[in-house]
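User: Sequence recovery, please. Input:
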């Protein structure tokens, strides 16, 4: 028998681990030393404190009242396996209360759990043979099945669906807090659903609604169009130009590409590409009555959003209230069709868009409040742009941390005496995440050049903005402080501005001007109001909630508590139905080989 000297392997492994650990610790010490040197520069990027008097005035102007209701929504999920069945559970639950703004401060009413009517949950059994079709992801080497993908996206649907429901039907709530990043989810889903929509695989296509059947063009427009004339969205540039043109064609006129470019104020050099893009749009999705050289949409095209939203809400209602059927099987065209993870991804995008539209029209404030983020656009993109535009004097290279949050968190501890809480970074446009700074010394002050970070594509500006915040620190020991969090929200005309920096992007035949939101030299009154509210919500004296958001903390606890209460019940119900079935039970005992092998190895070790 071959003998192996385990002692040498063990000692070598220990030595390697020790050396690697020393390297990491020394590297971190070096970064902390650098932070002490550049602490004043980082502090110059931060904004400190809140003005409660100004917050009260803003609330009156924004909401039309000094006291409004809020909803805090969080969700939970689980995955279990019973023989050949995978059982998923998702749920989203809410706490509600009131926020009252006054010159002396902000009063947050005690959060209370909402009734069962304002919740969304589902326990969904699936056989392994259906798993690849429903939530598998296609790759060149085949289909990859990740069991966590379905519950993750179902939980997103549950939370956004609950948020939309909570703000409709005579609701008195004007603020909704989500443990999500609105901007991050949208930016990801706009592109991840592109091929899915173009391949005509979405379950929503063909669904009957009061405004007619959902068409392929409806889905493509819902994916990309989030119009707001006051914000000039979509901007008439690059990949967005054809959608701005479609918006112009909703009036029913027949217009050439040159007519459209002139009306939209786009660079005339884009006329040829716009003509080709509109011809390609018709080839892929249809919907045009007339194409090239003049374009005209079919009647009813402008109702695309009503159709897509109605279909999305109908499928969501079925998922969370299937009335005896399977939550992921919907009737369509006389047959049943599975709702896949790709379908659910697109539904998440539609629901976020619906929240944003409602926010703009009805003066509602949705806030995404996230604990963990690996984003790094503030340090890697915004700070260099500020330097190139001449808005800051020095651009010292900050230590290389893995994320903005990690740098800001560590800096707040290392330089604690100079960083009182609450503080926040200037709000930045979500589109900065898709930009890469480029040197161009010929540009005037207040301007900078950028490329798209991937294939020169830059996400739509003036839709969402974000900020990093820290809400609490100890009076007696300033280095003891809460985590750095991130919030994002929609951009609002009349409250936010986009005149501090002009960015230029060389795209095809044109040098495109981009005006993103940046609250660096001047703040926003809405930022101050949001910070006043979040600061008050982060004061609850519970260690794990201190400096976080107490209503969201309670919603999270409720979601996990309900999962614990119901998990054994729904798993037991599945087990009973399997036992009652006249299906040959041996079929269900055909486990995967890796499960079988693990069981045998476990028995061998036990003996």
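Assistant: Recovered sequence (607 residues):
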């Amino acid at each position: 028998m071959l003998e192996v000297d385990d002692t040498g392997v063990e000692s070598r492994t220990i030595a390697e681990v020790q050396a690697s650990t020393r390297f990491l610790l020394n590297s971190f010490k070096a970064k902390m030393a650098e932070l002490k040197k550049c602490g004043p520069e980082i502090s110059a990027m931060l904004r400190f404190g809140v003005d409660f008097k100004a917050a009260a005035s803003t609330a009156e102007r924004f909401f039309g009242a000094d006291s409004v209701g809020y909803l805090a929504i969080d969700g939970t999920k689980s995955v279990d396996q019973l023989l050949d069945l995978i059982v998923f559970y998702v749920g989203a639950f809410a706490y509600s209360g009131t926020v009252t703004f006054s010159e002396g401060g902000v009063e947050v009413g005690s959060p209370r759990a909402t009734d069962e009517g304002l919740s969304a949950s589902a326990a969904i059994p699936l056989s392994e043979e259906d798993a690849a079709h429903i939530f598998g992801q296609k790759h060149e080497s085949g289909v990859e099945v990740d069991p966590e993908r379905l519950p993750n996206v179902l939980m997103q649907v549950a939370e956004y669906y609950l948020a939309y429901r909570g703000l409709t039907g005579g609701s008195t709530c004007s603020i909704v807090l989500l443990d999500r990043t609105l901007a991050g989810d949208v930016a990801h889903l706009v592109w991840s659903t592109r091929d899915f929509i173009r391949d005509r695989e979405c379950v929503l296509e063909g669904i009957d609604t009061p405004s007619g059947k959902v068409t392929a063009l409806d889905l493509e427009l819902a994916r990309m169009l989030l119009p707001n004339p006051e914000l000039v969205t979509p901007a008439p540039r690059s990949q967005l130009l054809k959608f701005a043109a479609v918006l112009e064609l909703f009036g029913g006129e027949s217009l050439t590409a040159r007519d459209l470019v002139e009306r939209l104020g786009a660079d005339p050099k884009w006329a040829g590409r716009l003509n080709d893009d509109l011809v390609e749009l018709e080839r892929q999705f249809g919907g045009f009555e007339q194409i090239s050289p003049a374009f005209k949409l079919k009647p009813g095209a402008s109702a695309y959003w009503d159709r897509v939203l109605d279909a999305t809400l109908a499928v969501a209602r079925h998922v969370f209230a299937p009335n005896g059927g399977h939550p992921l099987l919907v009737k369509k065209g006389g047959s049943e069709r599975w709702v896949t993870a790709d379908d659910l991804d697109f539904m998440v995008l539609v629901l976020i868009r619906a929240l944003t539209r409602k926010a703009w029209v009805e003066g509602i404030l949705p806030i995404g409040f996230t604990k963990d983020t690996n984003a790094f656009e503030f340090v890697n993109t915004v700070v260099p742009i500020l330097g190139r535009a001449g808005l800051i004097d020095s651009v010292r290279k900050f230590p290389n941390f893995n994320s903005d949050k990690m740098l800001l968190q560590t800096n707040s501890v290392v330089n604690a005496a100079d960083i009182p809480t609450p503080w926040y970074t200037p709000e930045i446009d979500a589109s900065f995440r898709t930009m890469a700074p480029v040197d161009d010394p010929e540009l005037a002050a207040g301007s900078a050049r950028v490329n798209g970070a991937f294939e020169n594509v830059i996400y739509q500006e003036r839709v969402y903005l974000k900020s990093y915040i820290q809400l609490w620190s100890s009076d007696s020991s300033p280095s003891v402080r809460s985590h750095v969090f991130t919030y994002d929200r929609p951009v609002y005309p009349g409250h936010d501005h986009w005149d501090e920096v002009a960015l230029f992007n060389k795209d095809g035949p044109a040098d495109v001007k981009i005006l993103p939101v940046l609250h660096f030299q001047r703040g926003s009154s809405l930022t101050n109001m949001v910070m006043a509210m979040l600061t008050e919500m982060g004061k609850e004296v519970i260690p794990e909630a201190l400096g976080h958001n107490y209503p969201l903390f309670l919603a999270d606890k409720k979601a996990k508590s309900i999962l614990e209460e119901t998990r054994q019940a729904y798993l037991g119900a599945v087990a009973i139905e399997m036992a009652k079935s006249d299906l040959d039970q041996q079929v269900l005992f055909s486990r995967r080989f890796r499960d079988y092998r693990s069981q045998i190895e476990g028995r061998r070790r036990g003996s």
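Residues 584-590 have pLDDT under 50 and may be disordered.
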